[in-house]
Write a structure and sequence with these properties.
The chain is an all-alpha fold. It has helices spanning 66-90, 95-117, 123-147, 151-171, 179-204, 218-247, 255-283. The chain contains 7 helices and no strands. The chain starts with 65 loop residues before the first helix and ends with a helix.
């Protein structure tokens, strides 16, 4: 399937083997929660040819584990945080800092796109994206804080709350991430981005005033809530891809892809949460 990240670039594990999350047809027994119910290798792109039984616990550590995902996610998000803190501390709000923020955002976008279309994860690209994204977030957060004091802190708490709630709902099985669920969600997300792109054009050409759908009013708040819900949707796809990658024995270095995907999604949620906090502060 196509990627779950906000720029809609392909993100899945072991693309050389065709594995991209949950793009294969389910086998009998999968509905009961066991993807290996009939043939343990029917859906596993990492299964060795000619082997008829699942391997015993391997002594090697060349397969991705949850610990790998956690460590690399912490490194990537930590790089974002360091970049943001340095930008906040060293770049006072000014026209120059806005220019640097825009430049950093463009560089981060290019690095993210390059990684998205690479066949293998590149830690250098991923950490480079994280560093430049951090600079952008630091400047933007400082700008919001100068007008709406405490907004970045509230946005961080909101992002953590959304992430924790989404993980809880996912692990509790209240949301089943199926191919149909992904198709419907991605269609809604595509429609959202198209509408936002049209809205941006209308604003640029002066047809829509005060940001149009992205205004700091009730309509802007509604759009922000929809965007955050889409971010939560992206997180469920991230969780599913990570879960499947571990179950199917994805190579260890592909935990960097998991870290990359989670970081992109969390940045999406944080930026939307930042706007939403500002809107509600405006209405107080």
């Amino acid at each position: 399937m196509r990627s779950s990240n906000p720029v809609f670039s392909r993100r899945g594990f072991s693309r050389d083997n065709g594995y991209a999350g949950f793009n294969t047809a389910p086998q009998a027994g999968y509905a009961q929660g066991n993807p290996y119910a009939q043939n343990p290798y029917a859906q596993n792109p990492y299964a060795q040819q000619g082997v008829g039984a699942p391997p015993q616990a391997p002594a090697t550590t060349d397969r991705m584990t949850m610990d790998d995902v956690v460590v690399r996610s912490a490194i990537t998000l930590g790089t974002v945080a360091v970049g943001a803190v340095l930008a906040w501390a060293l770049l006072p709000v000014s026209t120059t800092s806005y220019g640097l923020a825009v430049g950093s955002a463009l560089i981060a976008f290019v690095l993210a796109m390059v990684q998205s279309f690479k066949r293998t994860p590149s830690p250098a690209l991923i950490l480079g994206y994280a560093a430049f994204e951090g600079v952008f977030l630091g400047v933007i957060s400082e700008m919001y804080n100068s007008r709406w004091s405490g907004a970045p802190f509230q946005a961080v708490l909101g992002t953590m709350a959304v992430s924790a709630a989404t993980l809880l709902v996912y692990k509790a099985g209240w949301i089943r991430v199926t191919a149909r669920y992904a198709r419907i969600g991605m269609a809604i997300a595509m429609a959202f981005l198209v509408v936002m792109a049209v809205n941006l054009l209308l604003v640029v050409f002066g047809v829509a005033e005060n940001g149009g759908l992205r205004s700091f009013g009730p309509l802007g708040a509604l759009v922000g809530i929809i965007a955050i819900l889409l971010g939560a949707f992206f997180l469920t796809l991230d969780f599913k891809q990570i879960e499947d990658g571990i179950a199917y024995g994805a190579p260890r270095n592909e935990s960097w892809l998991a870290a990359f995907g989670l970081t992109v999604t969390l940045v999406w949620i944080y930026l939307e949460m930042l706007r939403l906090v500002a809107i509600f502060t405006n209405n107080d």
